[in-house]
Specification:
Layout lengths: L1 H33 L3 E2 L10 E5 L12 H15 L5 E5 L9 H11 L7 E4 L5 H10 L5 E7 H13 L3 E7 L8 H19 L15
Parallel strand pairs: 1-6, 2-3, 2-5, 3-4, 5-6
Helix pairs in contact: 1-5, 1-6, 4-5, 5-6
Length: about 210
């Protein structure tokens, strides 16, 4: 019995070490591969027909404004006003009646001066993978400027390019380290999951008919 327990413990330890190595390797690889294609400087971003704004909730769980949301809105509006993009796909979660990231982003962008007819809603962007692949498969965009915080853009641009897209990232301002600690820790696992999805050919949850962007 002791021998069996010892062997089980060894297997568990090996799996734990392998998991840690995989997470570290995935994070390093994604950051390295995406680094040449993301920037905080609008001047470094090429022109493209469409920007892809990745969704997040406008409020935190405690009801206070979410800085990630408002910083992304600011970045997307600035990118549009600079003339680098002509349209913005707002892609996010709309899984319940009372939670609608795309419409919240649309309203905030309009308030920042972006014309409503230049904003395209994608209500099925439940994950970063879904948002990126749907931009290509549903909205027929093979070149996009992805808008989010740097840590998120690293993963999104990596996924987009691995799915055959010419993708670049414009980094929105981050939040302070204390406020973003939980998100940054969670991102380590998210980058590993992105690699896992890529290796196993995971596809978006929903497809649908193609939507033409003029």
């Amino acid at each position: 019995m002791k021998k069996i327990i010892k062997n089980i413990f060894k297997i568990f330890l090996l799996l734990l070490v392998a998991g840690i190595i995989f997470i570290a390797w995935a994070n390093y690889s994604i950051k390295k591969d995406s680094e040449p294609f993301i920037s905080y400087n609008i001047a470094d971003v090429p022109e493209a027909k469409t920007g892809l704004l990745l969704g997040t909730g406008k409020l935190l769980s405690n009801g206070t404004p979410n800085a990630y949301f408002y910083n992304r809105i600011e970045a997307a509006a600035n990118l549009y006003k600079s003339g680098k993009i002509q349209y913005i796909i707002v892609s996010g979660d709309n899984s319940t009646k009372d939670y609608n990231e795309p419409e919240d982003m649309q309203l905030a962008l309009v308030q920042k001066g972006v014309p409503q007819d230049k904003i395209i809603l994608d209500h099925a962007g439940f994950r970063t993978l879904d948002s990126v692949v749907r931009a290509k498969d549903i909205f027929s965009q093979t070149k996009v400027i992805i808008i989010s915080q740097k840590f998120h853009n690293e993963r999104a641009v990596f996924l987009a390019r691995k799915n055959g897209m010419e993708a670049f990232g414009y980094n929105a301002a981050d939040v302070n380290k204390y406020a973003g600690l939980k998100t940054n820790i969670r991102e380590y696992a998210a980058k590993a999951k992105a690699y896992w999805d890529l290796l196993f050919g995971v596809e978006p949850k929903f497809g649908g008919e193609k939507i033409v962007i003029p």
